[in-house]
Write a sequence for this structure.
């Protein structure tokens, strides 16, 4: 990205399976207040653009941006919804800053999914009504089909996939923001309740709730106001085909294309350049698929997963931290920023000056995003 | 910041219930915008799509569902969303894709298919209200429009007959629009005698629910000459969202529309919109809203819009033509696509390609505006030829 843009503040609340003492609006307010305090900004004076990343059906509210301005200080200001992952919302904030709309922008994303009584029913409403809903498919069935095809194409077996779950959940035990840290044997994971064979219970990241607000600013503003920043060196999002029938399953095109574009912007050619890799693991096998998409070999990918090499998912990923819907990408950015500041907690990495985060919007989408970050100077 | 030009536009017919899926509607409009730009999908570097509540279609993550119809596959694609303001917000968003220097080309697509919701799309609007404070009242959108219309009439001492003139004008203008759903030659008396819905709102004060799609092709100044010798430049964009608590403000004036307009005018260096804007497409889901929005857009003083309408100033051959397309009242109101239709109309009028709808006077600069959420959001774009 030319004309550098940096993250000058982060705020978060929650990271629990269910937040019982805050409504969605209160959750946004708390996260935003913390982020603005962290950035040292007054939202009424300093912030020129507010973006919220939400989908109506998760909120139980049509036109969700209605309920956002009062909570984030954005009333009577430019505010909009980008119904997408938080990293894509950040991409729009980058464009707002670069086009002169704002010097400072705030991006809000949250999960308040425990409020949703019938989550599978909401998820299934995302399926094509003409072709997919009518055959009784659901998004886990699609994941099971893709997992089966991926394992056949890549040569990974059931035990390899279970090792992903084991490693992610163990890493999460050290992460103070993780809800699903655990020490499991691979045999327990192999034999867990089947969801859509070969997909089993632990292969699927469980939902969690959190609110995250990220404050971004132009480098000029950062220098003028003498703020510390984590800079965005590259940011890209791509959508591959939304159709499941056919196509390559060994890699995910949205991940490869997003990574290629973001790394090109960042001037980075090798993954080794990053100290932290926060890579999507909505389903266990997707972490392996995403690593292969970034150009990592099969053996190397499994070793990275098991040993946490190259700073892979110090958070424990979605399998360990919990699935945060549109805040998944924001969580990966938050984790990267906290790591670079030395504020991560028990999962703090020793070397943390640069990061790559890769996220997927989940089934039935073929949409993903990547962001390259570096500690500012 | 890059200068951004519009080089092509397209729209489907607006109809109460079409047989095409949402994807197909998005495809048709996108294809027409590409054809009009003499571009192919390979020339499109990014795509932005707008569509209003998922509840209309019952499709969760509707932007993802519509993606391949809008040409978003294998390129940066995202949806933007500010309720009823979405239609004008889509080209605003496409503008920042290009103005930021991130992309040289961006296809802006707006689609709406309201008809899948039975028995009537109005039911989707129940879920736009606060679940604790408002939904238990059984409130509908029409109720709050009637409150707003009544407040506007009370503050400015406006008669229903004066407001009805807007419906008469717009439905008449739509007679010349090939995509229009409800063009008609009607009289003020027809409006006054039409079925009461939620008084003072009557059937002919309201735009029809609809299905349809529209699209614009935007390119940067660096590549514009590859595609056209006759670009229309976007020189101002603005948007503004007011507090959710609509009950806490005076409804006679849309201050959020004024702030959105001022944002766009500042960018376009417009300091006297009444003089510098040659015509406007303002959001008219109800006839009184055209008057409300003319004032919010600073194209009329507060309370002055009814007089301008009465005196014919807002007619297609008037000094300040408003909604020469026929607006939502005449062309139809497939929410997001309706706002985009207005942006398309700016492009066609400014290039002199509006056919029988072409305004009589010479036009160089125009503004389009949409509105939405809970009487809460204004989105504005200005274009120059």
């Amino acid at each position: 990205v030319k004309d550098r843009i940096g993250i000058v503040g982060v705020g978060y609340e929650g990271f629990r399976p269910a937040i019982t003492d805050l409504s969605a609006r209160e959750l946004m307010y708390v996260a935003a207040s913390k982020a603005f305090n962290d950035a040292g900004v007054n939202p009424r004076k300093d912030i020129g653009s507010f973006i919220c990343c939400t989908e109506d059906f998760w909120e139980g509210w049509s036109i969700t941006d209605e309920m956002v301005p009062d909570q984030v200080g954005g009333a009577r200001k430019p505010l909009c919804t980008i119904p997408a992952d938080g990293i894509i919302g950040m991409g729009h904030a980058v464009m707002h800053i670069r086009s002169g709309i704002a010097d400072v922008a705030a991006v809000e994303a949250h999960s308040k999914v425990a409020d949703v009584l019938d989550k599978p029913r909401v998820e299934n409403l995302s399926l094509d009504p003409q072709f997919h809903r009518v055959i009784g498919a659901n998004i886990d069935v699609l994941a099971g089909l893709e997992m089966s095809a991926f394992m056949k194409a890549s040569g990974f077996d059931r035990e390899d996939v279970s090792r992903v779950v084991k490693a992610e959940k163990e890493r999460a035990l050290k992460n103070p923001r993780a809800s699903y840290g655990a020490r499991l044997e691979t045999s327990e994971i192999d034999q867990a309740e089947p969801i859509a064979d070969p997909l089993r219970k632990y292969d699927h990241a469980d939902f969690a709730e959190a609110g995250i607000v990220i404050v971004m600013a132009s480098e000029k503003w950062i220098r003028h106001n003498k703020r510390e920043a984590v800079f965005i060196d590259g940011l890209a999002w791509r959508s591959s085909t939304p159709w499941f029938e056919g196509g390559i399953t060994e890699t995910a095109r949205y991940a490869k294309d997003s990574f290629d574009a973001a790394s090109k912007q960042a001037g980075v050619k090798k993954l080794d350049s990053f100290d932290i890799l926060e890579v999507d693991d909505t389903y266990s096998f997707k972490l392996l698929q995403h690593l292969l998409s970034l150009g990592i070999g099969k053996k190397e990918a499994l070793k990275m997963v098991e040993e946490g090499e190259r700073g892979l998912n110090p958070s424990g990923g979605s399998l360990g931290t919990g699935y945060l819907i549109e805040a998944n990408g924001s969580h990966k950015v938050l984790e990267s920023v906290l790591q670079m500041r030395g504020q991560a907690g028990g999962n703090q990495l020793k070397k943390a000056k640069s990061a790559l985060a890769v996220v997927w919007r989940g089934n039935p989408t073929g949409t993903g995003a990547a962001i390259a970050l570096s500690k500012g100077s | 910041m890059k200068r951004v030009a519009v080089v092509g536009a397209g729209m489907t017919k607006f109809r109460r219930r079409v047989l095409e899926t949402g994807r197909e509607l998005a495809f048709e409009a996108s294809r027409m915008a590409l054809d009009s730009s003499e571009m192919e999908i390979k020339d499109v570097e990014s795509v932005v799509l707008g569509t209003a509540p998922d509840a209309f279609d019952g499709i969760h993550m509707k932007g993802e569902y519509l993606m391949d119809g809008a040409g978003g596959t294998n390129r940066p694609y995202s949806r933007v969303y500010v309720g009823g303001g979405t239609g004008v917000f889509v080209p605003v968003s496409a503008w920042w894709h290009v103005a930021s220097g991130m992309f040289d080309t961006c296809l802006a697509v707006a689609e709406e298919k309201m008809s899948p919701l039975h028995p009537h799309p109005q039911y989707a609007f129940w879920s736009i209200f606060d679940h604790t404070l408002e939904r238990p009242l059984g409130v509908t959108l029409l109720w709050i429009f009637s409150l707003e219309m009544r407040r506007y009439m009370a503050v400015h001492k406006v008669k229903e007959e004066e407001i009805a003139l807007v419906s008469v004008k717009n439905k008449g203008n739509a007679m010349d629009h090939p995509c229009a759903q409800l063009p008609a030659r009607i009289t003020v008396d027809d409006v006054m005698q039409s079925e009461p819905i939620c008084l003072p709102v009557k059937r002919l004060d309201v735009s029809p629910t609809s299905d349809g799609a529209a699209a614009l092709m935007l390119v940067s100044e660096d590549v514009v000459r590859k595609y056209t010798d006759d670009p229309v430049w976007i020189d101002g964009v603005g948007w503004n969202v007011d507090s959710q608590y609509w009950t806490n403000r005076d409804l006679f004036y849309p201050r959020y529309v004024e702030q959105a307009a001022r944002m766009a005018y500042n960018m376009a260096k417009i300091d006297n919109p009444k003089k510098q804007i040659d015509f406007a497409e303002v959001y008219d889901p109800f006839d009184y809203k055209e008057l409300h929005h003319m004032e919010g857009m600073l194209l009329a003083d507060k309370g002055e819009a009814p007089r301008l309408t009465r005196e014919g100033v807002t007619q297609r051959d008037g000094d300040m033509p408003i909604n020469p397309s026929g607006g939502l009242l005449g062309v139809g109101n497939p929410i997001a696509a309706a706002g985009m239709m207005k942006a398309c109309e700016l492009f066609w009028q400014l290039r002199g390609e509006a056919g029988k709808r072409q305004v009589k006077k010479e036009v160089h600069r125009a503004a389009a505006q949409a509105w939405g959420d809970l009487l809460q959001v204004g989105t504005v774009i200005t274009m120059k030829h």
User: Anything to note?
Assistant: Chain B has 13 helices and eleven strands. Chain B has a mean pLDDT of 97. Residues 22-37 of chain B form the longest helix (16 residues). Residues 47 and 77 of chain B are 5 Å apart (CA to CA).
